[in-house]
Structures are given as C-alpha cells and as structure tokens.
Amino acid sequence: MAMDLDKFDRRILAVIQKDARRPAELIGTEIGLSASAVQRRIARMRDEAVITAEVAVVDPISVGRPLTMIVDVEVERERPELLASLKQWIAAEPVIQEAWYVTGAGDYVLIVVARDVDDFDALMQRMMGENANVRRFQTRVALSTLKRGVLVPMDQPAS
C-alpha cells in the first residue's frame, strides 16, 4: 500500500534523489520547513520504505566496466520453481545492474556491465550452464549512454 505523501514529502524526495547528502537545513530553507521537520519526514519515509536506499552512483567506465549490454532472456517453462531459481541467480550476479520480468518476445531484460566481450561471454556461459530453464538470449551492445538514473518524478498525484 502506498504511503500518503504530501507536497513537502514530494519536494524532499525530489531534492534528495539528486543529492542525498544535502543537509536538512538547506532542504528546509528551500521548501519552507524546519530542519527537524525535514529530518522527521525523511526518517518516516525510510521507515515506510518509500526511501529504499541511499547510494553513491559510480561511473562504470571509471572502474573498468566500459561495456554495457542489454540482454533479452527467454525461458523454456514458466514453472514457479524454475523462475524462482533463475531470479535468485540473477539477483546474485553483481554485474547485472538491472533485471526486469517483462511481457513480449522475451521473459527478462537484463542490464549488464562488463570489462570486455570475454567477460560478458563468460557470464552468459555461466547463465546458460547453471540455469537449464534458459532457452536463449539476445544481446544488444550499448554504444553510448544517453541517460542513466533511478530518479522517480515527484509530480503531485491526480486527485
């Protein structure tokens, strides 16, 4: 169930999605609340799992992962236990940045960062070898990054 967020909560979220280290005093000045009110609201949104993490966004190229691949994965059967096993495998792979269970031709879309083609190939060989339910995969290489992020728009909901 979604938490009721007022305009102040949404404005706080808009600010901290761009800079989670921004002091509550500055946020409060910007949106018209005291620093303690901002801190209480942030604490409540953490408790209610509206805020699920506060992380550093790292440039993959700077840490030796210049290759981004978009992988469509198709499974043989959609039996719950087989899907659960594949989901666990995907969740445990640190180079898989995002994973989406989707409609359409494939069943999953994965975003993978790799050092090089050999690194990526080794991952796909492991995926196929350790997950007999994977029928096939199709890979697209990202030539450049136009946009990357996890910011959620903070528009006011329709009433």
Automatic annotation (TrEMBL):
SUPFAM superfamilies named in the record: Dimeric alpha+beta barrel, Winged helix' DNA-binding domain
Gene3D superfamilies recorded: 3.30.70.920, Winged helix-like DNA-binding domain superfamily/Winged helix DNA-binding domain
Domain HTH asnC-type: 5-66
Keyword field contains Transcription: yes
InterPro entries associated with the record: AsnC-type_HTH_dom, Dimeric_a/b-barrel, Tscrpt_reg_AsnC-like, Tscrpt_reg_AsnC/Lrp_C, WH-like_DNA-bd_sf, WH_DNA-bd_sf
Record SMART domains: HTH_ASNC
Keywords: DNA-binding, Transcription, Transcription regulation
UniProt cross-references to PROSITE patterns, sorted A to Z: HTH_ASNC_2 (PS50956)
Keyword presence, Transcription regulation: yes
Pfam families, alphabetized: AsnC_trans_reg, HTH_AsnC-type
Descriptive protein name: Lrp/AsnC family transcriptional regulator
